Structure formats: structure tokens, C-alpha cells
Amino acid sequence: GAGVSQSPRYKVTKRGQDVALRCDPISGHVSLYWYRQALGQGPEFLTYFNYEAQQDKSGLPNDRFSAERPEGSISTLTIQRTEQRDSAMYRCASSLSGTNSPLHFGNGTRLTVT
Amino acid sequence: GESVGLHLPTLSVQEGDNSIINCAYSNSASDYFIWYKQESGKGPQFIIDIRSNMDKRQGQRVTVLLNKTVKHLSLQIAATQPGDSAVYFCAENFILTAGNKLTFGGGTRVLVKP
């Protein structure tokens, strides 16, 4: 079946612009997660949702970052006034339930801020 | 695709031999653990998980061992194949903190020699 789908695959933007990254989770998965991954490191937690409710946003670096999942399915991670330090691979994952179930990751969006 | 793990600890294994990848986790209260495999240009792929009430779990060609006394997790791959070449991450979760938020370790690169 279809896995987690993220778009765009690559995004290049100029410093100061806003970007929106999209995640389409596996159908029927309750929980959706956003992670950021630097080269050579494991994914770093940003935020997660159960259905449409944002359960934890403690990993968002600052208030320029926000996420939503209004209908409990597709999610958007928005970065306002992008800075070069925001350049990274952003990964979305989903899981069938919110506890003790494995996360299934998408192939990510590579964001480059110039 | 992008490279994952440019400067990671590396385990070189002869094809057909068994591999053992080790991970020291950080939180003694963690109660759920997962191993992921990540190939270049792709998202982390779930391999196997284990709950803290177990000390061993077996899958297809893989075994995860958990030693809570010393906070150590290992992944054993039997009869390593060229397709096993990848970066492997362990991840832990403490359910009571925030649902299924996983914290990832630093990763180990496995290179399978023909």
C-alpha cells in the first residue's frame, strides 16, 4: 500500500520567504509526526498530532515554525521568514496509534534556504 | 540521492557473517525501543521494536536484545547481505512523557563486503 508521502521533495527558497511542507500520512494512521534530520544524525523531534489535535510541539525551534492537521489527515509544516539555519531534511512520519506503535517515515523534503 | 551518515561509526561485515550493532540509550525510564534502517536518499525504515517488559525479540533474520540494567540495546543481523548496507538508528520512547515521541541515537553505518 501507499506509504507516507511528502511534497515537495526539494524546496529552495530565499531567506525571509515563507515555506509550507506537506505530509500525507498512511491512510488510517492516527498519529502524525514531524522530524528534522541533519546529515549524519538521527531524526530530531519537532511536533506530533493525534488526529487533528497537536499533542506536543516542544521540538519546534521557535515561533516561526508551526504545524497543523485540520482534518486529522494531511498535515502542513510552515516556516515563516526562513533563515539559512532552517536548511535541513524535514521528515514526516505516521503511526497507527499513539502509543507503542512504530513510526513509518516518508522520504522527506530537503529544504535549502539561500 | 543524499548521503546519510558521512562521519558515522562504521561496521564492516563480510557477506554471510552475522552483524551486531550496539546502542546505549539515555533514559532509564524508557519503555519502548525501535531499530530503523536508513538507506541513502530514503527515510528511516522500521526493522523491529521491543517493549521494556521483554529482553529479546526475533524477526526475520534480525534479533533485538535489551539490557535495561546497563541501558543497552543491540541489533543482530544474521547472514548479512549486501542489501543490509545502510545506516542503522536505535530510538527510545518514554510513553508517559508524550505519547509516542521517539528520541533517536546517533546511528551506525553498516558496510557489507562481498
Oligomer: heterodimer
Largest sheet of chain A: 7 strands, mixed
Low-pLDDT sequence parts of chain B: 1-5
Rounded Rg of chain A? 13 Å
- For the record, give the distance between the C-alpha atoms at the N and C termini of chain A, rounded to a whole number: 36 Å
In percent terms, what proportion of residues of chain A is strand?
A: over 45%
Order of helices and strands of chain A: EEEEEEEEEEE
Q: Report the C-alpha radius of gyration of chain B, rounded.
A: 14 Å
Q: What is the general shape of chain B?
A: globular
- Assess the beta-strand content of chain B as a share of residues: over 45%
What is the general shape of chain A?
globular
Give the number of DSSP strands of chain A. Answer: 11
User: What class do helices, strands and sheet pairing of chain B give?
Assistant: mainly beta
Q: Please tally the helical runs of chain B, counting DSSP H or I stretches of 4 or more residues.
A: 1
Relative helix content of chain B: under 10%
Q: How would you characterize the overall build of this protein?
A:
The complex is a heterodimer of chains A (114) and B (114). Chain A is an all-beta fold and 114 residues long. In chain A, 0% of the residues lie in helices and 48% in strands. Chain A has no helices and eleven strands. In chain A, strands 2, 4, 5, 6, 9, 10 and 11 form a seven-stranded mixed sheet that branches. In chain A, a hairpin with an 8-residue loop joins strand 9 and strand 10 (104-105). The model of chain A has no long low-confidence stretch (mean pLDDT 94). With 114 residues, chain B is mainly beta. Chain B is built from one helix and ten strands. The longest helix of chain B is centred in the C-terminal third of the chain and has 4 residues, at 95-98. In chain B, 35% of the residues are buried. Residues 1-5 of chain B have low confidence and may be disordered. Chains A and B meet through strand 5, strand 9 and strand 10 of A and strand 3, strand 4, strand 8 and strand 9 of B.
